[in-house]
Amino acid sequence: MAKSDLALMAHLLRRAGFGATRDEIEEYAEKGYEDVVEDLVNPERCPPLDEDIISRYYDGENHVIWTSTWMYRMIVTRRPLVEKMALFWHHVFATGAGKVEHGPSMINQIQMFRKHGFGDFRTLLVELSRDPAMIFWLDNNENRLGEPNENYGRELLELFSMGAGNYSEDDIKNASRAFTGWTFTQPIPLYPQGHHPSEFVFKPQEHDYGPKTFLGESGNFDGEDIIDIIVRQEATARFIARHLYNFYVADEPQVPAWPIEPPQDQEAIDAIVQTYFDTGGDMRAIMRMILLSDFFKEARFKKVKSPTELVTGVLKLGGSITAPQPGIGRYQAATGLMGQQLLNPPTVEGWHTGREWIDGGTLNERINFAVEHIGDAEKPGVQEIIRRLGGNGDGGSARLSPEDFTERCLTLAGPLDVGEQTRQTLLDYARSGGTLDLSAPEERGKSVPRVVHMLQMIVSSKEYQFA
Amino acid sequence: MTINGKDPVLVVVQLTGGNDFMNTIIPYNNPVYYDSRPTVVIPQDQVLPIDDDLAFNPNAAPLKEMYDAGKVAVVQGIGYANSSRSHFRAMDIWHTCEPVKVGTEGWLGRTIREIDPQKENVLTAVNIGRGLPRALSAPGVPVTSVGDLDNVGLMTSIEERERRDKALDMFKKMYAPAIGSGAVMEYLAQTGSDVYTGADVLKQAPAMYESDVEYADNSIAKSLKDVARTHMAGLGTRIFYTSHGGYDHHANELKSHPQLMRELSGAISDFFDDLRAHDAAEEVTMLVFTEFGRRMRDNGSGTDHGSGGGAFLIGERVNGGLYSEYPSLDPARWLNGEDLDWTYDFRGIYSTVLDQWLGLDPVPIVDGQFEQLKPFARG
Fold first, then answer.
1. How far is CA A136 from the centre of its chain?
2. Minimum-distance CB partner of A421 among B166, B178, B194
3. What are the E-state strand segments in chain B?
4. What does the alpha-carbon distance between residue A236 and residue A276 come to, in Å, rounded to a whole number?
5. Residue A326's Cα: distance from chain center in Å?
6. What is the Cα–Cα distance from A235 to A170, expressed in whole angstroms?
């Protein structure tokens, strides 16, 4: 297997998934890049998660359980792009449990992203506008005939489709009027029935049936008519294209800067926009196009990992989570400390990404988490790396020079590209201990801690912070 | 602006979850209080009266003692228009001073930038806790976060001393500034170096500390002890931040709230005793805040999210007493028909501290002019 194939496959699985074990990378690489992309965008080709096991172990209704369940799915799924796409839409259509305070509705929203996140954008926007958690989050339940509440109408245009500067205040008012009466059923009380999600309901008596003008078109529009107009706009295609680029390809500035700062790769955005219009906003086709593009393949390590990506990536590297287990709640707590509490974005604008994930506190958390998790030589993923280092083909050998020891570890933990500073530091460490000898039990006893230390330093590096 | 030749220090304590202000400073002679709180109520004969209207929660006796000694300013009815009932949003508003739009810079982040524009000391601001509260966050402003001062900094899971020293040494080399590696990589290197330097200096603090004060065994006591140890080590820290969690009393409030009141007031009292014993109290003022108060009426077990909270300013240089106005309990004046209203904008207390304690221009930091209080003694 060519090293470049493995590096590219690892890149694909970091971006379209949540990282991969060495075995997975090899298995996928064997299959070939284009076939793997096809599997990723056609998730029904791969086995689903065992929902019975998940609901047996992760039943309950607090925030820790919802987010732990989601992280568990991210780590063990064979359909990683489904979860990654759900995370993408969660970033864009940021809805916060802090206000919604209704777990089942929040969970249903993410489930809706799993179901419709791969479909056409129009359907997704309609489902979003009917989503109870979103309706409550942006007050559309208070959007009524004669007393419109513009919160949802405004964010639908500014943050969920077109971006600021592409519509007028009157367009917001008219869009808001079109969504009057789109509300939800009052959820059944928690006690004694248990949690049940709320459901969308349209209240004709609260709906404004009057004529409206929106983006130059006039008619007795309702919400679906407004969405029909939105999805035809070039601004919409450009805005969503930039979001996709920022999430899957390379870090862009924060959303509020988009009207001012042009994209770093205009051609890539143009290509995504073209696919959007060629396919009627089919997200599956758009994702296929992105993942097969040269601009995607060339964007290795051009994104700072989100806390979710960092934690799931480390957990996959450690290889210990293959089935539900107690204590998994601490992993979602870890992403929170790193600045990303899932299902609870700070605002409707979502999380600020890229370098803004990093400050003194969050970097400290990222490093300490990775070092602690990888510091256990008994973890299956660490064991596997030691096994591969020690021989069995695969370029390994029972006795490794310091140079090979360093390079093999960087390859097995990534493959990770590192700068001169990092490489030299790792190499100096490797040299200080001489040849790494895994040939006999006694030598292994001394060598294993060196491998663990090497891996801990690799996951502490600057370069490891990038996806 | 100095106090006995020392730079003034601000310690911010965040009560996370929305403290029940009405059960902290209790309107103990007002029948509306008892009508509204059939269950989650402090009996009249147990309270610690301040005057004929208001009293401290009986579990906050150490704080009441400090109040009687003139060291505690109670800022009543603190809040802002259209108070958010979302923990996250409300906390964000307090952190960014931006109640309408979405702010990204923390007010203390801006404050640190004013105090230390050249970033000469990575310990100008120290957060005792994990992660970084948004209040302290501003682009390019280094802040050191300390989860546990006795095991401070990076790679704390490596127990073996020699191996950890080795790891830290490697970390330092890997994060040394590398010009030309790209803006984000350079920023990462700088941030990593700051984390390393901050921890490296801070780890000396415990050895320099000796005290007869015995703090209790709970999280806020431990955090304030870490603040005290860092402050007394003389590392130039001007802003400390820490949090005390658990105030979201939707249920079983009568069990949990008294416990928190005991922990908080005991910790604050021990903290100032400790500083006083080391001649390190005069230059310290503490601001205690929470993101919102609770609903007027209890729900049979606890109280739901409301508004109209309260804050405390505590310190040797504080002129103790009641400040601003307790929100009206008259049901006709309840906010949204169910909450204590607010009477004083929270940005006013920030302005007061920035201007009168830290000697900074508050206007650009809190984004506007807000009515200040006069809680500091002249001297």
1. 24
2. B178
3. 9-16, 25-26, 48-49, 55-56, 72-79, 125-128, 144-146, 239-245, 284-290, 309-315, 321-324, 344-345
4. 10
5. 24
6. 17
Sign of CA dihedral B368, B369, B374, B377: positive
DSSP-derived letter for residue B305 is: B
Q: What's the whole-number mean pLDDT along residues A286-290?
A: 98
CA B312 to chain centre: 9
Each residue's pLDDT tens digit, B68-91: 999 999 999 999 988 887 777 788
How does the average pLDDT of chain B come out, rounded?
A: 93
In angstroms, the CA B82 to CA A246 distance is 34
Q: Reduced to 3 states, what is the DSSP secondary structure of residue B153? A: coil
| B83/B292 Cα distance (integer angstroms) | 8
Decide: B18 and B91 in contact? Cβ < 8 Å.
Answer: no
Q: Which residue of A has its CA nearest to B91?
A: A346
Q: Do A121 and A281 form a contact (C-beta atoms < 8 A)?
A: yes
Q: Residue type for A448, please?
A: V
The percent of residues in chain A predicted with pLDDT above 70, rounded, is: 96
- Taking only the tens place, the pLDDT of each residue in B288-321 is 999 999 999 998 888 888 888 899 999 999 999 9
User: CA A96 to CA A134: how far, in whole Å?
Assistant: 9
Strand (E) positions, B204-258? Answer: 239-245
Shortest Cα distance from A244 to chain B (angstroms)? 20
Q: How far is CA A176 from CA A61, B144, B236, in A?
A: 33, 45, 53
Token pair recorded at residue B64:
């009441």
Dist. CA B102–CA B104, nearest whole Å: 7
The CA distance from A283 to A275, in Å, is 9
Q: Select the residue from A100, A158, A359 to test the B interface by mutation, using most B Cβ atoms within 10 A.
A: A359
Write down the pTM of the prediction: 0.85
Contact: A360, B167; criterion CB under 8 Å: no
Domains and CATH numbers, chain B: 9-149+217-366 (3.40.720), 153-202 (no CATH)
Strand (E) or helix (H) holding A316: helix A307-318
In angstroms, rounded to a whole number, what is the distance separating the alpha carbons of residues A344 and B86?
11
Structural contact between residues A9 and A24, judged by C-beta atoms closer than 8 angstroms: no
Region A30-52: mean pLDDT is: 94
- Neighbouring C-beta atoms of residue A278, cutoff 10 Å: 12
Q: How far is the C-alpha of B223 from the C-alpha of B129, rounded, in Å?
A: 8
Could you tell me the pLDDT band of residue A61, with boundaries at 50, 70 and 90? Answer: low
Omega cis (within 30) before A192 = yes
As a residue count, chain A comes to: 467
What phi and psi, each to the nearest 5 degrees, are found at residue A386? -65, -40
> Contact at 8 Å (CB) between A303 and A354?
yes
Among candidate residues B45, B15, B66, the one with its CA nearest the CA of residue B266: B66
pLDDT in tens, A410-429: 999 999 999 999 999 999 99
Q: What is the DSSP string of A27-87?
A: HHHHH-HHHHHHHHH-GGGSPPP-HHHHHHHS-S-SHHHHHHHHHHHHHH-S-HHHHHHHH
Nearest CA-CA distance, residue A420 and chain B, Å: 9
- Distance, CA of A317 to chain centre: 17
Residue B152's pLDDT band, with cuts at 50, 70 and 90, is: confident
Token pair in block for residue A417? 């590209």
User: Rounded to an integer, what distance in angstroms lies between the CA atom of residue A125 and that of residue A223?
Assistant: 10
Place of tokens 């460490």: A429
From chain B, pick out residues whose CB is under 8 angstroms from the CB of A355.
183-184, 187-188
A329-337 and A307-318 helices cross at what angle (nearest 10)? 140
Which tokens belong to A381? 């993923």
Tell me how far the alpha carbon of residue A230 is from its chain's centroid. Answer: 25
Question: Which DSSP helix (H) or strand (E) runs through A47?
Answer: none
Closest CB to A358 among B163, B167, B191: B191
CB contact under 8 A, A355 and B184: yes
Mean pLDDT is lowest, of A90-104, A222-236, B239-253, for A90-104
